[in-house]
Here is the input.
Amino acid sequence: MKIFDAHCDVLYKMFLDSSIQFNESEKLEVTLIGMISGGIKVQCFAIFIPQSIHPEMRFNAALYMIELFYEKIILPFPKLRVITTQFDLENLAEDEMGAILTLEGCDAIGNDLVKLKTLLRLGVTSIGLTWNHSNYVADGILEERGAGLSAFGKKVVSVLNTTHTWCDVSHLSERGFWDVIEYSDYPVASHSNCYSLCPNPRNLTNDQIEALIDRNSVLGITFVPEFLTSRNEATVTDVLRHLEYVCSLGGEEHVGFGSDFDGTDGKLPKGLMNVRDYDHLMNELVKYYSSKQVENFMYRNFINRYPKK
Here is the structure.
């Protein structure tokens, strides 16, 4: 069965450690060999700029990560193809895998729409407006002010609408979330869970999840333990609990997975330690859901909502 994973931070790790090889590395939770073994058909690769990077150098850092993406991930492996359109997705050969380039937080563009448009022209097709803190676009979920979209942020969303680009609400403040629901044509939550099950600020409330469903969007359940449970250790069962909760709100066709592999320092759920372990998750899913439902969760729900250009 095909798998679509809406978020990983491989590029961040490769940015920090130039010795890492994507083919196979003990330092990575997502590798080429792991993707093949785990049944990944499409993997999203996030550009995440560390807060330690000086603001004037963040756009350069984003460009460097894009260079890593093309030179270290795409170029050496002909069976791994860049995805920028629905046509690309539909025309992946049976033995090929897709790679989608995303941006996690608009810190890299400052207050410059030209920088945003440059990243889009270089192949980025999903834009997360913030990480946890504030930038020129909006406030992140941990920013005490909790502001929504700025005037510049609304211009950013307008560009994303014009270019048929996903606008990712994961990490965004609650007020910012509702602004995106109002202004964005292509909202998505790449890696967020259910606040009702785990009251972490990064998770989405019932109203937010239902709003995404009403907008015919999709939410990616993430494997980050602190977003799954308040207990010390998370399990695959916790992942299933969040999935079923979204389904109970009417989201059976609006939920998938955004693992956040390589993006957390915390201990991952037992049985979901790296991308190879997706087969374990799938084996659990088939105990409770039909093959069509599992296919939707694993692949179709995200694929069906990838913006048509």
